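Duplicate of #3305? Posting structure anyway:
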């Protein structure tokens, strides 16, 4: 694979045109979603080799196309596309398939496309090798560069390929050559070094019966890549004891023959997971998150949907949260004042910034279950359809986990409320539509049309005439639903 460093950012379009003239395709990597969209749009103005039929499919993936859908379809019609986490999953698949079929020549994308996909890209163009970190703008790791560069010249498509980096100055060109072309790939570190992963593994090992005492726990970890890399088993033992004490305090683990947990100091101590601990392990939850959810659920407050949404939003799993912008500060403070009495997590013992972000994220979910559509969510919160899906999926898992924990804790009212909230979150609906969306073939849009026409449940659906049903939700869907109702 050939590797080049070029100096002018404006050459991206020239490189795209040159790639197409060679009857080849390219991936252009940028470092943000807006940049991917803008670059694809600029490329589309200079080429005309797309597919109108594919563009139409992409446009109509959502019931009501958003501005993003229209922008994407316009690019695809010319032969370019953008690809990032904010797209609907089906749109991403259509773009990838269109690229494989040669109907899309240039994809402008974020680094997420570098992970695992095998695409017929002769070139990869890397417009920026820096990213914003806690230290400010910093160069990405060599391993990440190689992931992106390695998308070019895949063996099944080309004999060779080109990875082209964009340098703004001669000195930056030399810097990029030294760091990425001549540099060494960073060491890979065990994920067990991260405490949340370590907590999950220790609880899972005990819950599954794979380890039953401290000696077997230490023996297991002594054979891991983590121990090989860390080398100091005495420090690993201290970490494991710390985790065991946490699990004891949270009542996820106990001494096997005791009601409580004895000190974690002796090698022959026996461990067993409690019923609660076993369920936490089965749910693949970080025990810290499970304890946070349990403590929140136990609070004696007048709970509502926002209470639960803010509780699950204030977890590590939900990050990155929606950040509160300066222009939104007063609005979010008003929301906090409005909901203060029902919040299950507050900012008193936590960084207040994270608390505010959790309130904004919960507010985003609240608007979703009140039937705001994708376009409205994009305008209000800057969250794209694909990101909505991702956030909703994570919240679904956390709310399901909260339902399961509530059942074990005999908190039946919370379990019932959370189960309803989970369904509303899944479909993005108000409670009044729950009966209708349970019926196969009726989603959010059709349910709302039926409800507004006076059909509010299964009984109403059975009573309405076929002709009237056709008028409301369309001929084919109406006939299918009526047929299934007759059979059922």
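Output from current build:
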């Amino acid at each position: 694979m050939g590797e080049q460093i070029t100096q002018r950012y404006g050459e991206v379009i020239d490189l795209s045109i040159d790639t197409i003239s060679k009857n080849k395709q390219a991936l252009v990597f940028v470092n943000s979603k807006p940049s991917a969209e803008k670059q694809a749009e600029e490329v589309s103005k200079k080429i005309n080799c797309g597919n109108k039929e594919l563009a139409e499919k992409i446009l109509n993936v959502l019931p009501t196309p958003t501005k993003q859908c229209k922008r994407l379809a316009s690019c695809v019609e010319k032969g370019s596309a953008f690809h990032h986490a904010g797209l609907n999953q089906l749109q991403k698949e259509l773009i990838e398939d269109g690229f494989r079929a040669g109907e899309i020549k240039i994809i402008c994308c974020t680094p997420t496309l570098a992970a695992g996909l095998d695409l017929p890209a002769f070139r990869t163009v890397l417009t920026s090798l820096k990213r914003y970190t806690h230290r400010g703008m910093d160069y990405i790791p060599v391993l990440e560069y190689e992931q992106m560069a390695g998308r070019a010249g895949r063996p099944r498509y080309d004999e060779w390929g080109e990875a082209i980096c964009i340098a703004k100055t001669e000195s930056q060109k030399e810097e990029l050559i030294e760091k990425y072309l001549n540099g060494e790939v960073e060491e890979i570190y065990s994920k067990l070094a991260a405490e949340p992963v370590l907590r999950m593994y220790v609880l899972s090992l005990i819950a599954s019966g794979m380890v039953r005492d401290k000696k077997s726990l230490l023996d297991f970890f002594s054979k891991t890549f983590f121990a090989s890399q860390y080398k100091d088993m005495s420090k690993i033992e201290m970490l494991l004891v710390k985790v065991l004490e946490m699990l004891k305090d949270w009542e996820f683990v106990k001494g096997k023959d005791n009601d409580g947990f004895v000190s974690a100091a002796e090698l022959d101590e026996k461990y067993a997971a409690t019923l609660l601990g076993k369920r936490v392990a089965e749910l693949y939850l970080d025990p810290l998150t499970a304890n946070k959810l349990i403590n929140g659920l136990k609070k004696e407050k007048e709970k509502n949907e926002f209470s639960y949404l803010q509780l699950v939003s204030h977890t590590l799993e939900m990050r990155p949260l929606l950040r509160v912008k300066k222009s939104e500060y007063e609005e979010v403070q008003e929301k906090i004042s409005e909901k203060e009495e029902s919040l299950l997590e507050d900012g008193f013992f936590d960084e207040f910034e994270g608390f505010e972000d959790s309130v904004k994220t919960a507010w985003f979910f609240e608007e979703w279950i009140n039937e705001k559509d994708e376009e409205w969510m994009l305008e209000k919160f800057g969250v794209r359809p694909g990101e909505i899906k991702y956030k909703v999926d994570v919240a679904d898992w956390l709310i399901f986990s909260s339902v399961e924990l509530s059942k074990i804790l005999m908190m039946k009212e919370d379990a019932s409320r959370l189960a309803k909230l989970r369904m509303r979150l899944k479909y993005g609906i108000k409670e009044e539509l729950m009966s209708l969306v349970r019926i196969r073939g009726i989603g959010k849009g059709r349910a709302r049309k039926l409800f507004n026409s006076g059909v509010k449940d299964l009984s109403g659906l059975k009573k309405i005439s076929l002709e009237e049903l056709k008028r409301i939700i369309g001929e084919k869907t109406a006939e299918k639903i009526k047929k299934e109702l007759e059979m059922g």
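Confirmed duplicate; merging threads. The beta strands are 2-6, 26-29, 80-83, 106-109, 123-126, 130-133, 136-139, 162-166, 253-255, 271-273. Residues 5-9, 257-265 have pLDDT under 50 and may be disordered.
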